[in-house]
Amino acid sequence: MVDDVRKRVAVIGGGIAGLAAALRLRDLLPAGADLIVYEQSGVLGGKLRTGELGGLRVERGAESFLTSGPEGGESAAVALAKRLDLGPSLVHPATVPAALSIGGHLTPIPGGTLVGVPADVSNLGGVAHPDAGRDHDEGRPLLAAGEDVAVGALVRERYGDQVVDRLVDPLLGGVYAGRADRLSLEVTIPQLAETARVEHTLRAAVRAAQAKRNRAPGPVFTAVDGGMTRLVAAAAAASGARISLGLPVRDISRTAHGWRLLLGPAPFPQTDDVDAVVLAVPARPASRLLAGLSAEAAEAVGVLDYASVALVGMALPPGTPLPELSGFLVPPSEGTLVKAATFFTRKWPHLADSAGPVIVRASLGRAGEQERLQFDDEVLLERALRELGELIGDELPPPAASWIQRWGGGLPQYAPGHRERVAFARAALPPGLALAGAAFDGVGIPACIASGERAAEDVSKAMEG
Description:
The chain has helices at 16-28, 76-83, 151-159, 161-176, 185-188, 190-196, 202-212, 228-239, 283-290, 295-302, 344-347, 377-392, 418-428, 438-441, 445-464, and strands at residues 8-12, 34-39, 50-53, 56-59, 65-66, 90-91, 98-102, 105-108, 113-114, 117-118, 221-224, 242-245, 249-254, 259-263, 270-274, 276-279, 305-316, 327-329, 338-343, 358-364, 401-413, 433-435.
């Protein structure tokens, strides 16, 4: 426990990683500690944002989180929700299958894969025709110790192009909006990276990774009834932190006893002196703030690229017929702007109402396609509605209500070697300054929460010293 001298800690970034850090700091620091969360925008939560559509609460960002953690047991998000007395409000999706849209047809997603990478290439249901003869034992592990490669490079080498293009790409793209040929195996499918350093074939590596998964029985995904903003608001309140909205942090510098933050617009600067800092912002602003402290760390952090996406929410008339699916994914090779669709009121039973609207949410755009999103909302809505109709094989009626949520530069694109670069950056930073969030430790609400909690523990230990 840190000594009883009044401590002040700043958390820069009010997304779920920053709020989780603030809450964990409240646990670790003396009762009189002063915590402040600086969020440049006017709202907390980052990409957790709940909106209204057709009288229902519909997510404008992340819609759910993993129920189980990587080591088994409950995920960091479930644990946080329960701590915040939201356990009774946790809900799960219906057991309705999802599909892939390939060649104008909706085809069930094959089971038994690890983020689209199959263990049994004979069970792909015609989605892809692998070249299984490539996956032979060459007398050594697929990867050397510590080696990281792009997911696509490994799978293409062992199974051929179709498995990547039709199966792995859309499943990875549903999470990262990126391409398998550019995404790190170590970050996106860490279980497979681990077993690929032991097993001699991809088939064996996938099977070993699946066997190691210690997922608790029950639903894979969980959401919060009433929306993710409930989780955000509860975490902020429980942290007891002072919340500063709309006041950017423009610089961080060392002082004799801690850190000085330079705040606000340049013509009217303010400062805040604190004992420690958790930096929970995206890679580029993090790189700018680190530049004066460690050029090496700033460079390692700043190379991370991002994909932009737009979410289109539509409230269709009651009774609008849709396929008996929770939604579908679209491989990039299909050429559509729509990369995924969720039939919200079918997927989430707590929203279902036969007399109410049919809610559909479409995700538009992939990494490197920013220019395809550079149209006004009316054009994007028309494009989404038309493509969805073409993809499901039936024209959809105009929505009674709609919204478009743009997430410019919203999804990190982890290139091979990402974890090594982040470890280097962290090692180059002085004690008392910690990094947290999706830019460093992976997307997904549980990953961000765990990242924030670890950062809080790191700066708490530094203050003890």
